[in-house]
Design brief:
This protein is an alpha/beta fold. It has 7 helices and 6 strands, in the order βααβαβαβααββα. Helix 4 links the parallel strand 3 and strand 4. The longest helix has 25 residues. The chain binds farnesyl diphosphate (FPP). Farnesyl diphosphate (FPP) binds next to helix 1, helix 2, strand 2 and helix 3.
């Protein structure tokens, strides 16, 4: 994330499914939380790599709606990590003029996490060098349900005609309507799945899946993903 204008072959928006923390820990005979801790270091590396390359938006799938079904101790550990990250790393965002935003059913998060999130989101709201988006208690289907409810409310109130609903209407009712769709989706640890992430927004995104586990995905790996993207030819369903 940088104030430089992004070059044509640099994605404006990168979204990441950060997978493989548990496997990374298991391979080393460590508790899963150790994998998440190393994963948090990879989050810092991804933010740095975006700044250096000129990527303007970075969206990280940090906690899905499905993740609430994990063991209580793991959820508590992840929430603690998130709080620590927000407390200790907020200064990095200030230094680099990076704005923090969140996407998801934020009301589901513990009050202590919400408080830290709100503080950092508010404090960084005026920055424009880059935007870091944390997807928290996020689900792509849940987002579409929430958008549909908001649209139906407007129709019921008589402020929106059903015939006027088009793709732009749906986009405008998503959690962060002003954020451009991701150009590149990165998924670590080899699974070929979207896992309910940004279902609407990823329609035309380029995909990059690597076997590298998230805790091992550092700047060099990020640069490899960007270099793969730079070689892509995007057609958006047309011919060329
Ligand atoms: C997937 O690995 C990862 C998560 C569910 C959580 C991601 C969280 C972090 C990277 C740490 C903290 C985040 C921030 C923003 C500070 P997994 O547990 O599903 O791994 P597995 O598939 O190998 O079990």
């Amino acid at each position: 994330m940088s104030s430089k204008e992004p070059k044509a072959q640099i994605p404006r928006h990168v979204a990441i499914i950060m997978d493989g923390n548990g496997r990374w820990a298991k391979q080393r005979g460590l508790p899963r939380l150790k994998g998440h801790e190393q994963g948090a270091e990879s989050v810092r590396a991804a933010i740095r790599a975006c700044r250096e390359a000129g990527v303007k938006y970075l969206t990280l799938y940090a906690f899905s709606v499905e993740n609430w079904s994990r063991p209580r101790a793991e959820i508590a550990g992840l929430m603690r990590l998130l709080r620590t990250f927000l407390r200790d790393r907020a200064q990095d965002l200030h230094d680099d003029h990076v704005r923090l935003r969140v996407a998801g059913r934020i009301g589901d998060l513990p009050a202590s996490v919400r408080k830290e999130l709100t503080r950092v989101v508010d404090e960084t709201a005026s920055y424009r060098a880059g935007t870091l988006i944390l997807a928290l208690s996020y689900g792509g289907r849940a987002e579409l349900v929430d958008a549909t409810r908001a649209i139906v409310n407007e129709v019921t109130a008589g402020t929106l005609a059903p015939d006027a609903i088009d793709e732009a209407t749906i986009s405008a009712h998503l959690y962060l309507p002003d954020v451009p769709d991701p150009d590149l989706l990165i998924r670590t640890s080899g699974e070929m799945r979207l896992s309910n992430f940004l279902l609407w927004q990823l329609s035309y995104s380029e995909l990059y899946v690597t076997d590298v586990l998230w805790p091992d995905f550092r700047e060099e790996e990020f640069r490899m993903a960007l270099s793969s993207y730079a070689g892509r030819h995007r057609r958006f369903g047309g011919v060329s």
